[in-house]
Design goal:
Two copies of one chain form a homodimer. The relative contact order of chain A is 0.11. Chain A is elongated. Chain A folds into two domains: about 45 residues, Homeodomain-like (Arc Repressor Mutant, subunit A); about 150 residues, Tetracycline Repressor, domain 2 (Orthogonal Bundle). Chain A has nine helices and no strands. Chain A is an all-alpha fold. At the A-B interface, helix 6, helix 8 and helix 9 of A face helix 8 and helix 9 of B. Chain A binds a DNA duplex (30 and 30 nucleotides) through helix 1 and helix 3.
Chain lengths: ~200, ~200
DNA sequence: GGCAACGTACCGTCCGGTCGGTTTGGTGAG
DNA sequence: CTCACCAAACCGACCGGACGGTACGTTGCC
């Protein structure tokens, strides 16, 4: 496992530096020094600095997508499926908090083809989420007086914002926060104004 | 008004370029070319590239803060005050959409003292918002079973996320969206599960 | 003539990426 | 076991160029 160690160390160091300093202000030299390797070694495993950034996104995107696929394949009542999806994406986003920070801050720095690939993957997730909302609306459980795009944005905004306020060292528990946010969201999109707030 | 024209043009050009390309990847040369001025002229009005970024934030922050002060000074029932505040910050955030993009993406690139100043200003707004929630909770109109920090983050996430999905050219109307998002938020934080959704 | 408002040429620095060379780890013949 | 051999892994000095910022000259208005 010696060969992957270098790539791993570099990825780890890059993630931390990108998260704290930003992509553009982090030099390749800094990364390789933090990783304890040389520039030559790094360029042996990665094509470019850009490649490093993409690798970080890749890992997070593919994991979240595969989890979404699995949950939706299980089926069930639309509101319960949606609840599971919401809790899951919030929890995994907390697990990948540094990745999220880098993601939303530096995605626009990717070269065009790679950025398009990332956008495509994100849209896939987004669209799948949208079908859930649509189903719920068709069944009459979710409100239709607010545009679907607004409802969807209203949820993803929470996911997005996590890296700006949530701290694993803070008082809030990951699982609880995920349920609380999901609860706030579900209550706000239900067709009738009321409803209990079971976990 | 000839003297301010240069500074204005530069600020405008910088804002647009920062929003589309990011701060770090935009060179001073690009900015001055887009503004139709020279580098010398720019450095006559701004101390540094950093200064340009701060000026963009400054404008947005001071405007939103003064509007918040005014609304809260008017007083009224806590839920109505909060509603007004929410609608206002969403609408002004839409008015300042490019600023928002640059803000959340490049704030961490500011030099330490300036970044601290920005953080301080943001916290002021944040704290004032928190007192409103607190008052509502004390009066029994807002729920207390979810941590206040989560409720607050749940709202600001929407404000934050606007620059990622909202487009003035899109189908959504600014005023409507502001009311819809506010509505979703208020419904989710009310103490009882129900309630009408007046605009 | 004096001062603010610019214009321009240039500097020191740093950065992503490269490239020729060296080390290392595995293999198979003897 | 040994040694020749090779490919992959790795090293690090170096390059071309871009960038932020400055020094100093020039203009034009009072």
């Amino acid at each position: 496992m010696r060969t992957t160690s270098v790539a791993d160390q570099v990825t780890r160091a890059a993630l931390e530096l990108f998260a704290t300093q930003g992509y553009a202000t982090t030099s390749v030299q800094q990364i390789v020094e933090a990783a304890g390797v040389t520039k030559g070694a790094m360029y042996h495993y990665f094509q470019s600095k850009d490649d490093l950034l993409f690798a970080i996104y890749e890992r997070m995107l593919s994991l979240q997508k595969s989890r979404l696929d699995e949950i939706m394949a299980r089926g069930g009542a639309v509101e319960e499926v949606l609840r599971t999806v919401c809790v899951d994406v919030i929890e995994t986003s907390i697990d990948f908090l540094p990745e999220g920070t880098v993601f939303f801050r530096s995605m626009h720095m990717l070269t065009a083809p790679r950025r398009q690939e990332v956008v495509r993957r994100r849209r896939e997730y987004h669209d799948q989420f949208a079908t859930l909302i649509e189903r719920g609306q068709a069944e009459g459980v979710f409100r239709t007086d607010v545009p679907r795009s607004v409802l969807i944005a209203h949820f993803f905004s929470d996911v997005h914002y996590l890296s700006h306020w949530y701290s694993p060292e803070g008082p809030e528990d990951k699982t609880e926060v995920a349920q609380q946010i999901t609860d706030l969201f579900l209550r706000s999109i239900r067709a009738n104004g009321g409803g209990a707030t079971d976990g």
